[in-house]
Amino acid sequence: MSRDVDAMDRARAAGPCLTCVAVSLALVGAVVASFFYLSIDFAPLFSRESMRSMGRFIAEFAHPDLSPPFVAKTAWATLQTLAVSALGTLLAVAAGGLLALPAAGRFGAAARMAARALLNMLRSVPELVWAALMVIAVGLGPFAAVLALALHTTGVLGRLYAETLENAAPAPERALAESGSGPVAAFLYGTLALVSAQGAAYALYRWEMNIRMAAVLGFVGAGGLGQMLYFHLSIFQQSQAATVLLAVLLLVFGVELASSRWRRELAPAYA
Q: SS3 string of the chain?
C-alpha cells in the first residue's frame, strides 16, 4: 500500500504527462482545422429562412396517410423489411459460424489468415455498397437486400464468433477428447456448448441493426419500407412518407424490445 502511495506521489511530483498533453492538443488542433478545411458554417442553418423552411417541411409530416389501402401497402412493405432482415441475419449466422472455425485457428495458420482476410473484406464494405453491387448482379428487389445484409453481417459475426471460440476455456474440450470422445463431439459438447448462448446474443444484436439497415437499403432499390420512403419523398408526398416513417419506428422498437428480452434470457452477461 505504501509503495502505491509513494508511486502516486512521485507521479504528481514529475508533473503532467507531456505525451498526453501533446496528443490532446493535436486532437483539438485537428478538430479546429477540420472546420476550416470543410468550410463549415452554421449560420445558414439557423437563419430565419432556413428555420422557416424546416418548420414547414416538418409540419407536412404531421398528418400521416392512414387510409386503409395505404396502411395495407405499408404493412406489406413492413413484413418484407422484417423478412429481409431476418433471412439476411440467418444466412450470416450460418456462413459466419462456418468461417469462424478456420478463423479461430482450428485448421492451421494458413487457413486462419485466409479466413480472417475474407471476413475483414466482407465487413469492410458497407451494406449500401453491397446492396448496389447486388442490385447489379440480381436486379432490383428484396433478394439484393438479403444478399447485401448477409455478406456484411457474415464478416461481423464471423469475426465475433472466431474471437469467442479463441477465448473459450479449452479444458472441457480437452477433457472430453482425453476421455475418448471424437474431435467433433468434444468440440460440440466442450466448446460450442459454452459459447452458443453468447453467439445467439450476438446474432440477435446484429438482427436489431439489420432491421434499421434493411429499411435504408430500399433507397438503392432493394425493396421494403426504404423503397417506399424514397419514392414518396422524391415526389414530395410527405403524408405518405410520414406513414412509412411511423412503420419504420414501430418495427425497430418492436424488434429491439423482443431482441433485448431474448438476449437477457439467453446470455444475461452479454445482453
A: CHHHHHHHHHHHHHCCCHHHHHHHHHHHHHHHHHHHHCCCCCCHHHCHHHHHHHHHHHHCCCCCCCCHHHHHHHHHHHHHHHHHHHHHHHHHHHHHHHHHHHHCCCCCHHHHHHHHHHHHHHHHCCHHHHHHHHHHHHCCCHHHHHHHHHHHHHHHHHHHHHHHHHHCCCHHHHHHHHCCCCHHHHHHHHHHHHHHHHHHHHHHHHHHHHHHHHHHHHHHCCCHHHHHHHHHHHCCCHHHHHHHHHHHHHHHHHHHHHHHHHHHHHCHHHC
**CATH 1.10.150.450 is the classification of domain 66-270:** no
Inter-residue contact 146 to 95 (CB < 8 Å): no
pTM of the model: 0.75
What's the mean pLDDT in 177-184? 76
* Mean pLDDT confidence for 13-32: 77
Number of Cβ within a 10 Å radius of residue 123 = 19
80-133 confidence digits (pLDDT tens): 888 888 999 999 999 999 998 898 888 888 888 999 999 999 999 988 889 888
Domains in the chain: boundaries: 2-58, 66-270
- 251's CB contacts (< 8 A; 6+ apart) are 78, 81, 82, 211, 215, 225
pLDDT-based confidence at residue 5 (cuts at 50, 70, 90)? very low
Q: State the cell numbers at 201.
A: 446474443
- How do residues 139-157 score in pLDDT, each as one tens digit? 878 888 899 999 999 999 9
